[in-house]
Amino acid sequence: MQLNFRQVRQELPRCPSRRAKTPYVTGRCVHLRTTYRAPVARAQVSEENALEQAFESALLEAQAKGGARQRPAHAYPEEPEAEDERERVFLVGAAIKGEQKKYTYDVHESVEELGRLAETAGLKVMGSTFQMLEAPNMSTYIGSGKVAEVARAVAALDVETVIFDDELSPGQLRNLERALGGTGPDGLPVDVRVCDRTALILDIFSQRAQTREGQLQVELAQTEYQLPRLTKMWSHLDRVGGGGQVKGTGEKQIEIDKRLLRDKAAQLRRELEAVRTHRRQYREKRSSTPIPVVGICGYTNAGKSTLLNTITGAGVLAEDQLFATLDPTTRRVRLKGNKEILLSDTVGFIQKLPTELVAAFRATLEEIQDASIILHVVDISHPNAAAQNEAVMQVLTELGVDHIPIVTAWNKIDACSNPDEVRRIAAKRTRTVCISGMTGEGLEQLMEVLGGELEKAMVEVHALLPYSAGDLLNDLHTGGRVKNQEYKEDGVEVTAAAPKSLAGRLHSLGYLLNELEGEEDEDEDEDDGVVLLA
Ligand SMILES: Nc1nc2c(ncn2[C@@H]2O[C@H](COP(=O)(O)OP(=O)(O)OP(=O)(O)O)[C@@H](O)[C@H]2O)c(=O)[nH]1
Ligand SMILES: [Mg+2]
After folding, report:
1. pTM of this prediction?
2. Which of 85, 105, 152, 306 could bond 110 through an S-S bridge, CB–CB 3.0 to 4.6 Å?
3. CA of 207 to the centre of ligand 2 (A)
4. Shared-domain flag, residues 249 and 382
């Protein structure tokens, strides 16, 4: 007996646990998890074992296997009861054998995260499936049997869009759209859109970008993504001007579209350059102030904005949603001893971050490039903390900022089931502090560690400042630590620890009496990921 997906859809809402609402179905089995992270339970459906019965026994099995665990904040939100109009999507993941890294998302988790992304984009997840593969299929990514299975699910669940967890080639997209569409069980044609994780992330970014620069970046990334894939796109992704109302002589529609897209990309690049020049000037002005910058970065939803809010009351949007923050926000914070820093919140990272986006956001992430210290916020209560940590470190390397000292904040300690164990492990690591941006726990210690690291990042200066350069003396007091100052006939002789930028300025003005030290010592500790704790 093959499973009838329409029946699955009709029957399941009557099942007792609302939590097990995203089951996936393969062949004759119904698979489910009662809670996020609970192991999968499956039961076969047969003539004797009706769907509802099979579902019940899978439910019992899943609960016995660990369903008692609490749903963490990042599990699927409860679905609203009311009939909703959201676009209905089905998710497909694939695990390629031999592609396993040291810390990695397994395919379940990756698809689960894809589901969270889809919810963030305002889509309704109807179900999901995945396949273990030796290698991706050249023409359809997944194997033909799996394609047929997804096609059945699409027809039965009234799915409008199928989202793949990995980036698809233009050819694969086309083939899949053709294979998954067709005729539904009711004899009506089924029109299915296929897209991949990259398009979904781009879509979320475009919904959320606030500043002109953010919007331009995303639009450019989308245009570049669309160009080689010029077929059908989501209508709301499709912002290609008029669509070529005037057909050029002998030019095929697709060529017109391509030309329009290319023109649009060029135009976007010009606009972006103008906006960036403006921001660069602002940044240069800022970098001439002596206040060191601490760049907050971390996996999406790690709690970066909450932390900045708690520290500064900045009122940055913090939400239990992926990619709540897209535009950097910077706030001034006073540390103990009256030292000031600039804390800068940035866009979150995610595994399988589309390369288009890394490139597009490179400029925004220059905020991090300027930082004296990177504050890496990790959601240590997340079951995948280790893989997320790895993903962030990878992007930092890609951005060429891995030489900047990193202070790691293990956030959400309040949500850990074993906080003492986590604290014990953190204590063994250098520059790692357990905090809760929510309750404020550990923030004082974090500030202390940041202060200490900033101090280390300073260089010794011995300078003679003419009386006309009083502002520089001021800067040394605000941004650095003055150890000694004597009023001489031709100026003030000071010995101080100063931020590198300020030391450089003193050097270029010819006020320095000492040689500037070379690069600071290499980091002595190797940061090879987080031990899986949760
Ligand atoms: N339990 C607990 N939850 C937290 C803590 N910090 C943040 N959260 C929650 O985690 C979710 C994400 O927080 P944000 O501050 O928006 O995370 P972010 O890293 O800025 O996320 P993006 O901007 O989306 O990348 C929110 O629901 C917060 O309430 C914490 O210390 N403990
Ligand atoms: Mg944020």
Report:
1. 0.69
2. 105
3. 15
4. no
Domain count along the chain:
3
Distance 327 CA to ligand 2 centre (A): 9
Buried-exposed string 94-117: b where 16+ CB fall within 10 A, e elsewhere: bbeeeeeeebbbebbbbbbbbbbb
- Contact status, residue 83 vs residue 42, Cβ threshold 8 Å: no
CA 181, distance to chain mean position in Å, is 31
Ligand 1 atom 3, closest CA? 412
- List, in order, residues 6 or more apart from 109 with CB less than 8 Å away: 383, 384, 387
Q: Is the beta carbon of 92 within 6 A of some atom in ligand 1?
A: no
Final residue belonging to a domain, choices 48, 71, 94: 71
Check if 223 has its Cβ closer than 6 Å to any atom of ligand 1: no
**Per-10-residue mean pLDDT, the chain, length 534:** 49 43 53 46 66 68 51 41 74 81 74 92 92 90 93 86 91 89 62 87 82 84 83 38 43 74 91 83 64 87 90 62 64 74 80 73 69 92 91 84 90 94 93 93 91 85 90 83 90 88 84 71 41 38
**pLDDT score recorded for residue 150:** 93
3-state secondary structure at position 266: helix
- Chain length of the chain: 534
Asked if the structure places residue 170 within a domain, the reply is no
Q: Are residues 265 and 311 in the same domain?
A: no
Q: Can you tell me the ipTM of this complex?
A: 0.98
Residue nearest atom 30 in ligand 1 by C-alpha distance:
412
If we measure between CA atoms, which residue out of 338, 288, 331 comes closest to residue 482? 338
Question: Are the beta carbons of 336 and 301 closer than 8 angstroms?
Answer: no
| Residue pointed to by tokens 């984009």 | 121
Is the distance from the beta carbon of residue 301 to the nearest atom of ligand 1 less than 6 Å?
yes
- Residue 392 domain flag: yes
Residue 140 falls inside a structural domain: no
The pLDDT value given to residue 417? 92
